[in-house]
Amino acid sequence: MAPPSHCHTINGGAPRNGAISAVETTSTPEASDTARLLDADEFRRLGHQVVDFIADYYAGLGDYPVHPSVTPGFLRRQLPVDAPSRPEPEAFAAALRDVRDLILPGVTHWQSPRHFAHFPASSSTVGALGEALAAGINVVPFTWAASPAATELEMVVVDWLGRALHLPERLLFAGGGGGTILGTSCEAILCALVAARDRKLAEIGARRIGDLVVYCSDQTHFAFRKAARIAGILREHCREIPTYRDDTFALSPSALHAAMQADVEAGLVPLFLCATVGTTQTTAVDPVRELCAVAARHGGVWVHVDAAYAGSALVCPEFRDVIAIAEAVDSLSMNAHKWLLANNDCCAMWVAAPSALVAALGTEQEYILKDAAAEGHDVVDYKDWGTTLTRRFRALKVWLVLRCYGVEGLRSHVRSHVAMAAAFEAMVRDDARFEVVAPRRFALVCFRLRSPERLGGEKAANELNRRLLEEANAASSGPYMSSAMVGGVYMLRCAIGSTLTEERHVREAWKVVQERATSILVNVANWVQTSR
Amino acid sequence: MAPPSHCHTINGGAPRNGAISAVETTSTPEASDTARLLDADEFRRLGHQVVDFIADYYAGLGDYPVHPSVTPGFLRRQLPVDAPSRPEPEAFAAALRDVRDLILPGVTHWQSPRHFAHFPASSSTVGALGEALAAGINVVPFTWAASPAATELEMVVVDWLGRALHLPERLLFAGGGGGTILGTSCEAILCALVAARDRKLAEIGARRIGDLVVYCSDQTHFAFRKAARIAGILREHCREIPTYRDDTFALSPSALHAAMQADVEAGLVPLFLCATVGTTQTTAVDPVRELCAVAARHGGVWVHVDAAYAGSALVCPEFRDVIAIAEAVDSLSMNAHKWLLANNDCCAMWVAAPSALVAALGTEQEYILKDAAAEGHDVVDYKDWGTTLTRRFRALKVWLVLRCYGVEGLRSHVRSHVAMAAAFEAMVRDDARFEVVAPRRFALVCFRLRSPERLGGEKAANELNRRLLEEANAASSGPYMSSAMVGGVYMLRCAIGSTLTEERHVREAWKVVQERATSILVNVANWVQTSR
Could you tell me if A401 and A413 lie in one domain? Predict the structure, then answer.
C-alpha cells in the first residue's frame, strides 16, 4: 500500500482494524514553486485529505492501545539525520502515511475513550476545527489594531464563558475586570503573580523582592512553584502548607494565617496565595472564601484561584458550593482544554484589576502600529495581558464551542462524566477489597486496594497498588490510569474526561482492575504463605 | 443568502468578489447528544466545510483591504451578551457565515499579499494543515511518556532545522546541546534568562538577584525587557546601550564592555546579553562573535541571540556572515512562523547546556506518570525546557513543512522575498525624493521622503513621513506598511514576507507610496508658499 517514502515505515502498533485509509493521487509542491505555497486549490486538495485522515483516526481511536509500548529512541532511530533537501515525490501523502505508520503508533492517545490518566483532554469536533480555522486565518492579534475582530471576539467570549461559569461580574469586562485566553495555567498563574509582585514592590521598594513570600498547599500543582521560580521568588519563600486527609486535603485557613503571621513577624512580606479548586491529585477544593478573608488581613495578599480542571464544572449550577468561591478573588484561571471541549491549548484567565496586569506586563514601542480609529478609546491590547507578544486567535475556537454546543451542551458533557465517575465509585465501594481514598466531587475517583492482613505496613500497600496500576495499564486494550501519592498513601486515579468515554469503557476498565487485583492478591497470599 | 443567525450579520467590508461560499445543508450536534461531540462522520462533514471555507478565503484574500476600517466596539456591539443556552439550528454553518460576514471583515489580513507591516506572517498550506492535524490528534506531550513519538519528533526536527540553518553542532542534540519548539521568542528569551539567572545565583547566592544586570541595545525587541521584568531583574538593571546610524544600528562591543566594566566596578553582576540578528526596526545585525568575546571576559555572561525574524535567512548559505555568528552563543531562538512557512505560533530555541534549563525549570511530582520503558534512559521531558507544562505538538507542523517543501524550498521562499525587497529598494533609490534610511540586508526596506527644503527640521520631516504612511495605508486596495523611529528619525518599513506577495504587489505598493508622496508634497509646497 505504501510506496517507499522518505522515512522507513514500520509495521506493528497500528490499530487492529487499520482504519486510516492510504492517501493517494497527490502531487507535491515543487521546491521552486513558491507561488503554490498558499494556493487555494492546493489547500483544498490537501486539506480534504487531512480531514479524512483525522476522521479515520477518530473512527479507529478506540482500538489503539492508549499508551504505546515503545522504548526511548524508537522514532529517532527511524528518521534521517537531515531534513530532505528537496521534497520526495508526493511528499504530503508520504508524510501522512508516516504519521499513520510511524507517529500514531508511538503517541499516547489522549482522546482514547480508555484514557483515564492525568486529566484527559476533553476535545471536540468543533474545538479541533476551531483550531484549524484559526491556523488557516493565521492572524496575530497582539494589539487591537493588529486584528480588531480577534481582540473583540476574545473580550466577548471571556465574558460569555465567565457568565456561563457563574463568575462574579467584577471579574468580567462588563463589571470592570476582564479576561484573556492564554495557552496554559502556568502562564495564567505567572501573569497574576508578576502583576501582584510588581504592585507590591511599587509599595515597598523594588529591592525587596527577596522578602516576598508566596503560599500554596502541598497539593497545589507544580505550575505554581514553577511560576514562582520564574518570577524570582526565593525558593525558600514558597510556603507549601501541609494538608490532611481529615480535611479532604484542602488548605486550612488557620494554617495559612499562622504561616503568614510567622512571616510577618520575621520581617517578610506575604504576597500571593495560589488556592486550588480541584487539585490535580484528588480534586480537593480549598475553602477560598475563608482563605480570602485571611489574605485580606495581611495587607492585600493577591489571591489567585487555579481551577485548571474543576473550573469547567462551574458551568453546572448544582456545584453551587464551588461556584460561591470566586466572590472575592483577585484572579482565576481554568483550562477549557481540560474538560470543556476546547482542544489543546486553551486557558481562560480573569482578573479583577486588569490595570495591575498591564502595569507589570505592558509594552510600548514605536514600531507597534497604532490605529487612528482606536485613539481616545480604551482598547485592550492583549500583548499587555500576558507573557508573550505574539499570540494565536484562540478566541475563535472558544466562541465556536460555546456557539455550537451551547451552555446546556457543556453542562451535559460535564454531567455525563460526573455520572460515570459516580458509577465507577459505586463499583469500587461494592468490592470490599478496595477503598475510595479521597472524596469524589467531580469526575475523578481516587481508590486503592486495601492492604491485605499480614502483608505489612503502608509501604507494602503502596507497592501493591503500584503494581496494580502497572498491570492494569499494561493490558493493550485496557484502561490507562495514573496515580497520586498523598499523605504517604499511594492511590490509583481514574479520571473520566475523554469525550469518547462511554459507560461501557468505565465498566470494562473496572473489570480489568478487578481481574489484575485478583491475580496480584493470589500471588501475595502465596508469598505470605511461603514466607511464614 | 444567510438565514437569521445567532449573531446579527452585517453587510459591507467583505471582499469585493465575495468568494467564500455559503455553507448549507448541515445539522448541528444536539446539546444532549454528547456521543456526537467527537464523532468521525460529523468531523468529516464539518471538516470538509472548514477546508472549503479556508480555501475560499485564500482565493479572495488579495481583494480584502489588508486592514479593516472599523472602530473599537464594532464587533462587541453586534454580539449577544451571553453565550447561547442551546445551539441554534445548524449552528456550525451559521457560525461559519458569521466568521465570513462579521469576523473576517474586521481582522487585519496578515496573509494578504499586500501586508508589508511588522514582519508579515509567512504561512503555508502545509503549515496550516500541520496545525489542523496536531489539533485533531490533540496529544499533550509534556513528558516523553505522555506521548513518546511527539517528544522524539520534536528532538529530530530541532536538529533538522538547526542543521538547515547552519547552526553549530554544539547547539544540537547531536552535539550535546538541544532544542525545543515553543510558541514565541518571548518564551524562549525568558527560558534562557531564567536558566542563566539561576545558574549565576547558585554561584553568588540567591539573595543577590537585585545585583544582576542584563544588557541589550536600544534596538532590542521589547520581548527582552518583558522577559527581564518577569524574571525579577530590577528595571533599572536593564542596560539599553545606544546604537548609531553610522554603526548600522548594531550594538557596539566596546560600548558593551564599558557598560559591563562600570557595573562590575559598582559591585553589580553582569548576567545576560540579548543580542539580535535582524532587529525589528531595521533588521540590524549585532556583531555577535565580538560581543561573545566581551561577555566571556565578564565571568561567563550568558549570550542569547534573538533571531526571531532573520533566523530564517540562515537557511541560505549566501548569508555566511550572519551564519558565522552562532559559534559561541549559549542559546539562540528564531520564529519559524515569521518567515519559514510555519503558521503561528512556532519559535525554535536551541541551548548549548540543556542542563541549565532543566535545573531552573524542571519539575518533579508523583502524579506525573513515568514509563518503565524510559527508566535508565536519558529521556527529554519537554515540560522542563519551557515555562509551561501543557504544550502542543508543534513539532508535527515543522516536520511536515521541512518534509514537504525541503530545505531548498525554504531557500527559494526566503530568496524570492529578498529579491523583491532588493527590487523595492532599487525603486526607492531611483526616486530622488526618497532615501533608504538603513541598509537593507534581508527583506525589509526602511525608507522615507527626504525633507523638502524650507519645510523645517527633523520634526517636520517626521510628520511628513507619518502622514505619508497614514495615507498610503488608507488606500483600501493599497499596501499596509508600518514604521520605525530610530535615532530620532521616523521611517516607513516595507517588510516583504507574506507568502502570497508577488512582484506586482511590490510594484503596486511603491506606486501608491509615490502617488501619495506627490500629493502630499504639492500640499506642502502650497503651504510653504502661503506661509512665506
Answer: no
Tell me whether residue A277 is in a domain: yes
Q: What is the pLDDT of residue B20?
A: 63
Confirm whether A331 is domain-assigned.
Answer: yes
What is the spatial distance between Cα B428 and Cα B422, in angstroms, rounded to a whole number? 10
What is the residue range of B451's domain?
407-530
What pLDDT score was predicted for residue B526? 82
Residue B445, strand partner residues: B494
Judge if B269 and B180 occupy the same domain: yes
CB contact under 8 A, A37 and B125: yes
CATH number of the structural domain spanning residue B415: 3.90.1150.10
Distances (CA, A) of B258 to A41, A471, B294: 57, 64, 10
- How many domains, chain A? 3
Q: Which one of A276, A387, A486 makes the best mutation probe of the B interface by having the most chain B beta carbons within 10 Å?
A: A387
Is A120 contained in some domain? no
Residues of A whose CB is below 8 A from B400 = 92, 95
A201 with A329, same domain: the answer is: yes
| A 359-418 residues inside an 8 A Cβ radius of B | 360-361, 363-367, 369, 371-374, 377-379, 387-392, 396, 399-400, 402-409, 412-413, 416
Interatomic CA distance for residues A352 and A462, integer angstroms: 44
* CATH code for position B253: 3.40.640.10
Res. A34: pLDDT tops 80 = no
Instruction: Answer yes or no: do A387 and B391 touch at CB < 8 A.
Output: no
For the segment A447-481, what is each residue's pLDDT rounded down to a tens digit? Answer: 999 987 767 788 899 999 999 999 999 988 899 99
The answer on A215 and A252 residing in a single domain is yes
Indicate if A97 and A163 belong to the same structural domain. Answer: no
| CB spacing of B55 vs A43 below 8 angstroms | yes
Residue B139: inside a domain, yes or no?
no
Whether A245 and A285 map to the same domain: the answer is yes
Give the residues of chain B that fall short of pLDDT 70.
1-35, 364-377, 454, 528, 531-532
When comparing pLDDT for B379 and A161, which is higher? A161
B12 and B94 share one domain: yes
Per residue in B36-69, pLDDT (tens digit) is 899 999 999 999 999 999 999 999 999 999 999 9
Q: Report pLDDT digits (tens) over A38-72.
A: 999 999 999 999 999 999 999 999 999 999 999 99
Contacts 24+ apart (CB under 8 A), B413-417: B413/A34, B413/A37, B413/B122, B413/B339, B413/B340, B413/B341, B413/B499, B414/B312, B414/B313, B414/B315, B414/B316, B414/B339, B414/B340, B414/B443, B415/B316, B416/A34, B417/B339, B417/B442, B417/B443, B417/B496, B417/B497, B417/B501
| Domain co-membership, B80 together with B192 | no
Model pLDDT, residue A28: 41
